[in-house]
Write a structure and sequence with these properties.
Chain lengths: ~425, ~325
């Protein structure tokens, strides 16, 4: 009895020793990951990890789920400042690039990504990826596109067909359609107010001028286009009565209201598509945001992969290999199908897996088609302060306290004040 | 017996021995108090003099910075620069951005205290009077009134988020019943966000303060009430002339912990309000979080923390003096 027990203990101890020795040989790649969409992300990533480790037995991929995007950045900062174990990578917002690069939390990918691969990523996803942090005149690649979305107009195609309507092609049609589709129990259109800069951008683009340009220290909050866009939002409830007045639309409520038929159209992220498609019992279709005089416009959003600074070369190399695998055409198609994010690689659209999915789900193909008319997302130095200035005044307009022109002039002045230290 | 006892006491008085054991037992507590309270307090006092914006590039400053006192040699928009008391000076200046933020936040916090403390205390007293009676179902009533206190603030805020939902949210339905026009979105509207926090706090705190009042009520002497009843005092007179004055110490204690609590509550703000309403509806502690983790203005966050520590310290001292003094007076 005793001998057997000893034997078992001995075997266990040896096994433990062997397994820990095996673990020591592996390169551990830890990635901080935010949960930002309503899909079983952890299950999907467990599958990916298993698949990748089967091909690369000397690497150990560990996803560390930290909460939202803000929590990921806070955790990374805390670990970097407090001297904890640094992760190899992190998923953070594409627009966080200046904050995290300036803080020395992340390093460029340039050394790990070759030119050919890089040119396969959609240009629009790379529009918030470069930053000349070292001031040598050329931007370095800090954000590798991974979970990317755009702003879309979702519309109830069944309802439009019943009313003999074509999908709206410009502002006037959009407003008039929304007005027609508004009933006692249904709003014509919902444009959420909880993250307003992102929804305002495609409207401003559609009137001829984005809120942000190529410079990381310049914004265009009070351009004629932006003022017209904000005035259009106000008109939607004051003139057309097609949307709730003032500050009412919640980001989180809109998809549910659309899927239940309580809203005929919503302006929302591609990330909400799987949820909406599975919940809606009518035909859903999407497009970019109609422009003032035609055309469709959108801006990108979502998160990029960042390479953490201060890790050893072997870990950085392993992280880069995994990042390229994760954003490879095959993987990006699978990720898109299962989460609603859009593919990040152009060659992915030619894969059979994508073409068959796009045939079943034309909405996804439609969402990809909007990428041609996208401008960069609002991202500048001191982003939180600049964005606050804009948001405060947008909400003041929606609350009826300020007029669009005066409000955006004030937002522009405040933003210029904040950005003046960088000039 | 007397002789031996007196001999022992005299022997003890001749050789007073230091009692080491209590100090040894206190050591772990003292260690943690030092680690988590004393050391951070002094660290934040020291760091409130440092201008540091790690999320800015390391560039020399060309424009004049709003904060005075920065050494010419290290004029970097990133820092760290030693600015002395510049943040505190900026906070009391009328037109600096720090001053505007500070006044806004202190105003919000004051409104929050005035909005939550008196109402939740009056409700607490009424609840306590209600459940202090001998009647059937009093256990259920106590449970129902105390339940919000047991619930974590995060869960409470999540439940209330649903109440505040525009249009079909219960709160808006209730207002509609009374003829209120627009189904407003309370939590993302800068004008209403603070009020939604106040409503949640009242709902959450009233049951907690009720416990103190209940304890106070049960400690009141019976005979005064019998005497008052013989003199023909009705229940209202008894309440205003006997119960409330006799509960003065409870009221004092509850009001102090209520004000301290009002400065410490932040979870509902984190759950309910969005980054959006920043500034317009921020309470002091939430603003500190914003400045430290979102805007990344370390020095301002530290300076605000110093102000908050000062406020809490003053309140604690007031609590000690007011309640302890009475203790001796009685």
């Amino acid at each position: 009895m005793k001998v057997r027990l000893l034997l078992i203990v001995a075997i266990l101890v040896t096994a433990l020793g062997v397994s820990s020795a095996a673990a020591q040989d592996k390169t551990v790649v830890t990635i901080y990951f935010p949960i930002a969409v309503d899909s079983p992300v952890t299950e999907i990533l467990d599958e990916y990890t298993a698949a990748y480790e089967a091909e690369n037995p000397d690497v150990d991929i560990v996803f560390s789920y930290e909460g939202g995007y803000t929590d990921v950045q806070t955790k990374l900062r805390t670990v970097a400042e407090g001297g904890g174990d640094l992760p190899a990578g992190a998923i953070m917002l594409a627009t966080d690039i200046f904050d995290v690069a300036n803080a020395g939390l992340v390093q460029p990918w340039d050394a790990y990504v070759d030119e050919d691969t890089l040119s396969d990523y959609f240009d629009v996803w790379l529009s918030n990826s470069y930053y000349d942090a070292d001031g040598d005149g050329t931007g370095e690649l800090y954000g590798l596109p991974f979970q990317r979305s755009t702003v879309l107009l979702y519309y109830n195609a069944t309802l439009l067909a019943e009313n003999n309507m074509e999908p709206p092609a410009n502002w006037q049609e959009l407003a008039e359609d929304a007005q027609t589709l508004t009933t006692d129990t249904r709003w014509g259109i919902l444009i959420p107010n909880s993250w307003p800069y992102w929804e305002l951008q495609p409207f401003a683009l559609g009137a001829g001028q984005n809120l942000v340009g190529d410079s990381d220290t310049e914004v265009f909050f009070n351009s004629d286009a932006a003022v017209e866009a904000l005035q259009y939002w106000v008109d939607l409830y004051t003139v057309y009565n097609a949307t709730p007045a003032g500050v009412q639309n919640n980001w989180g409520d809109a998809p549910g209201l659309f899927a239940s038929g309580d809203a005929a159209m919503i302006v929302h992220s591609t990330g909400s598509m799987p949820g909406i498609l599975s919940a809606a019992d009518f035909e859903v279709n999407v497009s970019g945001i109609p422009g003032k005089d035609g055309g469709h416009f959108t801006v990108p959003g979502g998160g990029n992969l960042y390479l953490v600074a201060g890790i050893d070369d072997a870990t950085a190399q392993a992280m880069a290999d995994f990042a390229l695998w994760l954003t490879s055409p095959e993987q990006t198609v699978d990720w898109s199908i299962r989460t609603g994010y859009l593919p990040v690689r152009q060659s992915a659209l030619e894969l059979e897996s994508w073409t068959s999915y796009a045939a079943d789900t034309p909405q996804a193909a439609q969402a990809v088609a909007t990428l041609d008319s996208a401008g960069p997302e609002l991202s500048v130095q001191s982003l939180a302060d600049v964005r606050n200035a804009l948001h405060t005044h947008i909400l003041a307009v929606l609350n009826g306290e300020e007029e669009p022109q005066a409000a955006l002039d004030a937002a522009q002045a405040e933003a210029d004040e904040i950005l003046s230290i960088y000039q | 017996m007397t002789s031996s006892a007196s001999v022992r006491t005299r022997w003890q008085m001749r050789r007073p021995r230091i009692q080491w054991l209590p100090y040894v037992l206190l050591l772990p507590t003292l260690y943690f108090v030092f680690l988590f309270t004393v050391y951070p307090t002094f660290k934040v006092l020291r760091d409130s003099r440092i201008y540091y914006h790690p999320s800015r590039p390391d560039r020399q400053m060309v424009t004049d910075l709003k904060l005075p006192g920065i050494d010419e040699a290290t004029r970097s928009i990133r820092g760290p620069n030693n600015v002395g008391l510049a943040y505190f000076r900026a906070m009391v200046e009328p037109d600096s951005p720090e001053g505007e933020t500070f006044r806004q936040v202190i105003g919000n916090s004051a409104l929050y205290v005035v909005g939550t403390v008196p109402i939740s205390m009056i409700l607490a007293l009424l609840f306590a009077l209600l459940v202090n009676r001998k009647m059937r179902g009093v256990g259920i009533a106590r449970l129902a009134l105390f339940y919000p206190t047991v619930l974590p603030m995060v869960s409470a805020a999540t439940i209330w988020l649903f109440f505040f939902t525009p249009d079909y949210g219960l709160w808006n339905q209730l207002f509609k019943f009374f003829g209120y026009g627009g189904p407003q979105n309370w939590v993302i509207n800068p004008k209403l966000a603070l009020w939604s926090l106040i409503i949640v706090a009242i709902w959450k705190n009233a049951g907690y303060f009720m416990i103190f009042y209940l304890a106070g009520l049960q400690g009141l002497p019976e005979d005064v009430y019998e005497a008052a009843a013989l003199d023909g005092a009705n229940w209202f007179t008894q309440l205003t002339r006997i119960t409330v004055p006799l509960l003065r110490r409870t009221t004092l204690f509850v009001s102090v912990i209520a004000i301290i609590g009002a400065f410490q509550q932040v979870e509902h703000a984190l759950v309910m309000t969005y980054e959006l309403v920043s500034g317009e509806a921020d309470l002091l502690l939430y603003e500190i979080y914003q400045q430290r983790f979102i805007q990344q203005d370390y020095g301002f966050a530290n300076s605000l923390t110093v102000v908050m520590i000062a406020i809490l310290f003053a309140l604690t001292l007031a609590n000690v003096f007011l309640t302890e003094r009475q203790e001796y007076a009685n």
